[in-house]
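TICKET #2291
ISSUE: user wants both folds in one file
ATTACHMENT 1:
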Amino acid sequence: MADKPKPARKAAPTGKPAGQQARKPAAAGQPSKAVAARPKGGEVATPAPEGYQSLIEPRTGLAELLAPVGGFGVTLSNMFRKTVTEQYPSEKVPAKPRYHGRHQLNRYADGLEKCIGCELCAWACPADAIYVEGGDNTPDAQFSPGERYGRVYQINYLRCIFCGLCIEACPTRALTMTNEYELAGPTRAGMIWEKEDLLAPLREGMLAAPHPMVEGTTHTDYYRGEITHATDAQRAWVAEHRPDDPTLPGGAGLDVANELAPTAAAMAATVAAATKQGSR
């Protein structure tokens, strides 16, 4: 029987990382590869070129001695100032004008909704907190100028990070953010706001949607801001189809028309109770 071949002898471990080969000594008569000198003093930055002179004047004397503690200047200067504590919720400080608070779906001057159901805000949301379903406007149900409107609009405030990307994506300026920052709910479902919770309140001269556009205008006229109020023809249409509408002249009034929706009302009650409990 033929002898079995002997297994190859394993190389002794060298402690070098895998894949790194040992350097072979340069053959006689061949120049060795030049290696850059290692920076001195632990410096790893690129050495300054020759002739370079820094514009920062070097510190000398007492300034150089106190340089390590110079960073505590702000801390030491505030140690002897009076501490100001905001007494929230007893005293509520107004937010800055550009504060990113609760969202709002805006209306045009005649009451039609600005949202066209394009879903760009939902696509732009990094937290997937917005859900939109668009619908088609009809002659008997005209909610916004043009062909489409936001039939379903939801914002989940358990997910929202208030980044403001949704309002940047809105092409009609339908979605904006208010200064309202007190958001609380008794349940998880109570933190999901529907379209009726987000719509801006009706103001004087507006009619609750749906109703036709101002006669003789197009959606472009609305986008340009050329509509200033509801017309008599629009009021006549609403009076014919919804004679008990509170926004009509002689109706129940804007206070009734702007009553909070169930989700918004529950959140307002929760916030009011928490404010009362926390007040001094």
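ATTACHMENT 2:
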Amino acid sequence: MNKNSFFLLFCLLTFPLMAYSETYQGLWIGQVELNKVNDTTSQTSTDTLQPVKHVFDITVLLHVHENGSISLLKEVTMMQKSIQQDDQEVVQRVLITDDRLLPEYDGIIRRDGKLVGIRLGSLAYDFPADQTHVSLSGTFGAGNSIETTLTMDEDHPTNPFRHLYHPDHKQGRQITRQIQFSFDSNQNTTNPDDANFSLTGVYSESISGLHKIPLKISGPFTIQRISEVGKLNE
């Protein structure tokens, strides 16, 4: 069992699924294997993608709201809270992307004698400083596609062209990333109520601002649902 499979199993055991919803709602996590890139030095076509020598993996986090809206997440913490249901106190699991809200909830695993949440994150992308997630357009599910555009301003703290100790690098360049997830039409299963339900497809991205021409990358992805909580920060 590789570390990604072990981590998914750990989340499934410690953050059990709620009642089956018969939808795609919930938190999805997975890996993209970037295995193709365009040749920026080509004299004929810089749009054609070529296989890479070494595959590069990135982690992606997606959330499908109970109303059907789709979000790309950078970080999320699995927590819980107590609610009254049928005159009884029960525990309800929650997904928190706004760290300012964490003190309002309880953790779900014990560490050093106290309950803490399970934190998931990705280093593959960043958002504007005031955003904890970004919306994707399109339809989630087999045979469909979803997409979004990420824009990193010149003065963003993680802009790769900025350098704290170089006087000429106080301001970066605007970087635009057009991201698309295209789901395969043929999946291993089409039943969202499968406890091990996963989706596969092809990830593609075009990055402008890093080079004089857009950089294009792509590769297969597999995502698995680890929670059916259909809301964020509630």
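RESOLUTION: both attachments delivered.
EXTRA DETAIL ON ATTACHMENT 2: The CA atoms of residues 107 and 117 lie 4 Å apart.
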